[in-house]
Amino acid sequence: MRGEARLAPGGVALAYTHNCTSATEWVTGLLGLDRSEFETRLKPFLPGAAGLTFIPYLNGQRTPRRPAGLGILSGLQSFHTSTELVRAVVEGVTFGLAYAMRSLSRAGIEPEAVTLVGGGATSEAWSQIVADVFRLPVQRPALPDAAALGAALQVRHAVSGNALATLAPDDEHWEPR
User: Fold this and answer.
1) φ, ψ for residue 9, nearest 5 deg
2) Are 116 and 144 in contact (CB under 8 A)?
């Protein structure tokens, strides 16, 4: 069964994902990277991770519905370095998010932009990758660790029926290339 977007109480559309944080924390822990080193390895690299592909289902997955799903690293060759591994993990997570976004599209929801929140939102390189993969402008709120605020806005919408407020974007944004 495929994971699909659902309308939560109050009519808020949700596409459930898993593994964004766990996959990136896994690779940074495995390689002993801090955020700055992670960004340095991600920034200059070309799309495709030199043929290395990562399916980030380290803890199962929600969309698509694969609760027993496993992570897969494919195409590994002797010339691959930690830089390609970081890129493959980020691309795998991003394409997983894009799959979830397509489930929203199948439910009739067509976003005009993406607002990134959470720890990954602090990465400029990842923000550009999201814009490129989603083919949508990406914006980042002044407070990128705003996942709890986003959840609170959804609850407010569900309870009150008021229009769903948006997180005010900072002046940082990325256009698809």
Assistant:
1) -50, 135
2) yes
Closest CA to 15 of 7, 24, 23, 5: 5
Residue by residue, DSSP assigns 63-115 as TTTBTT---EEES--TT--HHHHHHHHHHHHHHHHHHHHHHHHHTT---S-EE
Please give the domain boundaries of the chain with CATH numbers for all domains.
6-174 (3.30.420.40)
Give the 3-state secondary structure of residue 171. strand
- Give the C-alpha distances (Å, rounded to integers) separating 25 from 56, 91, 107, 125: 12, 14, 31, 16
Residue 5 in tokens: 């977007």
The pair of structure tokens assigned to 73 is 């690293």
The pLDDT tens digits along the chain (177 residues) read: 344 455 555 556 666 677 888 899 999 999 999 999 999 998 877 899 999 999 999 988 888 888 899 999 999 999 999 999 999 999 999 999 998 888 888 888 888 888 887 778 888 999 999 999 999 999 887 776 676 777 777 777 777 766 655 665 566 889 999
